[in-house]
């Protein structure tokens, strides 16, 4: 009876040992940032406590643009059923090992995959994580096994970036924008302007065509105000547009908001504007036939009575390097 019990447990014990396979996908770049046309190099590292049987090891390279229609534009029901079909940039499968056995201890399977889009739109977009648009790239390793031992899977995401284009620093400074905010500049009716406190705020943005790796800079000055100011804030927005035959939606959502002044500000005091752009939640402005990713900047002036004045700026993000940077 004891021997029968041991015989029954043996396959289960063997399966448990096989399921304890540890493996990970390792890339040759620690920052996991690659350019289109590069070779994606790395290895899949296995660590097995005992010799383990498998039915094949496959590595899949995936690049996809996921689009989602906003419920605000088309309704909850329509948004659920009319989700835009994902755009596949590439989907390549590589067989790392034919069915066989993984040896006990450590073992590695090396790979090299070209980062090239061979189908429409024939270009790799930058990695981007938004609300309604997501551009993702990842490697997926599948270890196939028999039905007694569950198949294993691991994924590793990486980033695609555009190669920076060389620009003259004078080109960037030529997009400087001066602004002036007062009751007269607000889009209000004459009747509504009567209740607005008298104020004048001036300033400038150093450029509206910005490099994603450089901060947004400028300055703002409160010339005079009848009502004390509580706060001045700078808000970065993403404007995502998804268009297709099933539907169309355009939404502006907040990426980040920073406070550049707190409390009542001394008149005539020049306040600097300085905002660092978040890495994965911004990308160069992108306009395609299926979707658009654009960016805007809101300057919010909040008065003591909670009255809010907003000035909106359209900005274009690029990935550039100036001639001075290139010399360094």
Automatic annotation (TrEMBL):
Pfam families: Vps26. One of its GO terms (biological process) is intracellular protein transport. Coiled coil: none annotated. It is found in: Endosome. InterPro entries: Arrestin-like_C (IPR014752), Ig_E-set (IPR014756), Vps26-related (IPR028934). Its main location: other. The keyword Membrane does not apply. One of its GO terms (cellular component) is endosome. Keywords: Endosome. Component of the commander complex that is essential for endosomal recycling of transmembrane cargos; the commander complex is composed of the CCC subcomplex and the retriever subcomplex. Component of the retriever complex, which is a heterotrimeric complex related to retromer cargo-selective complex (CSC) and essential for retromer-independent retrieval and recycling of numerous cargos such as integrin alpha-5/beta-1 (ITGA5:ITGB1). The recruitment of the retriever complex to the endosomal membrane involves CCC and WASH complexes. Belongs to the VPS26 family. Component of the commander complex that is essential for endosomal recycling of transmembrane cargos; the commander complex is composed of the CCC subcomplex and the retriever subcomplex. Component of the heterotrimeric retriever complex consisting of VPS26C, VPS29 and VPS35L; within the complex interacts with VPS35L. Interacts with SNX17 (via C-terminus); the interaction is direct and associates SNX17 with the retriever complex. Interacts with SNX31; the interaction is direct. PANTHER family: VACUOLAR PROTEIN SORTING 26 RELATED (PTHR12233). This is Vacuolar protein sorting-associated protein 26C.
